[in-house]
Amino acid sequence: MTEPSVSDAAADIERDVAAIGRIDAVPTLLRVLCETTEMGFAAVARVTGQSWTACAVRDEIAFGLLPGGQLDVDTTLCKEVREARQTIVIEHASEDEVWCDHHAPRHYGIESYVSVPIVLADGAFFGTLCAIDPRPARLPPHVVSTFTLFAELIALQLENGRKHDQAQRALLDEQQTGELREQFIAVLGHDLRNPLAAISACSQLLARRAGDPEAVGGLAARIGNNVRRMSTLIDDVLDFERGRLGSGMTLRSELVTDLEPALVAVVAELRDVHPTRAIESSIAIAQPVRGDRSRLQQLASNLLANALEHGAQDAPVELDAGISGDTLVIEVRNAGEPIPPASQDKIFSPFWRHSLSTRREGLGLGLHICDQIVKAHGGTLGVSSSRDGGTRFTARLPIAGHDDAEPR
């Protein structure tokens, strides 16, 4: 079983140096060790198999290391401490029968040396608490015990610091969740108000015009449209919340043999909802596609609804769907004001709304959900937008399906 250890990544080294720097007691501990042993250099070092990094230093012999400074770990005795997880104590290196020929004391010109392992609560080897001096030193057992106790104290403080950081992150996550919840309530409440008001008004008119079948039919259609809007808002919220909670986009992967008529039905439905708008379509899917039929319909519907909302009112919205090689391509285009380049990076983010649109229907989740549907199928969703070429959303999905698209 591999023992846990610290990382050699630059960001992790910087983080751990900073963590030692936040322990107020460390400078005092190093001063006490230097005064007790009369050794001129003491340090807390972060040690891995590939690196030796000073995290905190007391230097009275001009050794030349500052916090963040590094040594070649192969030239240090801390490498042996790490490998054996045992303390090394040398009082007079040149006369020590074990260490007199070791390269490390000769390399750094030291006679006395102490290095004690710093091991974290999870068993990870963090580094060492060490001291060196070019002069011999008396290092009786009680002095070495002091090093050991100080190393344990540093490990405990590191653990407490990590727990504090985790608690802070958890608090921040909770605050963000609370803010998101408030945003949900505010936006959903605002966007549900209009269809609810329309349904209420229609119900009153129905009561007054019960004897006029033509008027009743028109009012019933208006009620149906507003109910669909409300249902879409609620579905978007549920889809987004599932993604936030980690369950991801729910797919029912199957071999879809009728995707062409399924997308034709989507276009027909949006034509009914927007009778004054021109929707042109070219759909040619002659072979089966592995995926979730209803989610692919949702993808096309959301892209079309977005184009109808933000596109030029006097220009058609176009949808093309077909097979290119081993890829299903669904593309929706609309004319009108282009999406600014700065906004294109944010367009698939939740709650994003087109800054140029004068209308504000929906939660701003439609494109985010489109992106999640495409990703769950193992595909990509891109956007291009210019004044001359209009705005174009292109989804590319492998027709053979994707591992993530299995039922969950």
The tally of structural domains comes to 3
Report the order of strands and helices.
HHEEEHEHEEHHEHEEHEEHHEE
Question: What's the number of helices?
Answer: 10
Number of strands: 13
Give the percentage of residues in beta strands. Answer: 15-25%
Q: Roughly what is the average pLDDT, rounded to an integer?
A: 83
Strand order of the main beta sheet, please? 3-2-1-6-5-4
Largest sheet: 6 strands, antiparallel
Q: Can you tell me the overall shape?
A: elongated
What is the CATH topology assignment of the largest domain?
Answer: Beta-Lactamase
Distance between the termini: 33 Å
What is the alpha-carbon Rg in Å? 34 Å
CATH architecture of the largest domain: 2-Layer Sandwich
Range of helix content = 40-55%
In the CATH scheme, the class of the largest domain would be Alpha Beta
Low-confidence stretches: 355-363, 404-408
Structural class, judged by helices and strands? alpha+beta
Keywords:
20% strand; Heat Shock Protein 90; Helix Hairpins; Beta-Lactamase; 10 helices; disordered C terminus; single chain; alpha+beta
Give a verbal description of the structure.
This protein is of the alpha+beta class and 408 residues long. The protein folds into three domains: 10-167, Beta-Lactamase (2-Layer Sandwich), CATH 3.30.450.40; 170-244, Signal transduction histidine kinase, dimerisation/phosphotransfer (DHp) domain (Helix Hairpins, Orthogonal Bundle), CATH 1.10.287; 254-405, Histidine kinase-like ATPase, C-terminal domain (Heat Shock Protein 90, 2-Layer Sandwich), CATH 3.30.565.10. Helices cover 45% and strands 20% of the residues. The chain has helices at 10-21, 26-37, 78-84, 103-108, 141-208, 213-244, 259-273, 293-310, 341-344, 366-376, and strands at 41-47, 52-59, 70-71, 88-90, 112-119, 125-133, 254-256, 279-284, 289-291, 317-324, 327-334, 380-386, 390-398. The chain has a six-stranded antiparallel sheet with strand order 3-2-1-6-5-4. Strands 8-10-11-13-12 form a five-stranded mixed sheet. The radius of gyration is 34 Å and the shape is elongated. Residues 355-363 and 404-408 have low confidence and may be disordered.
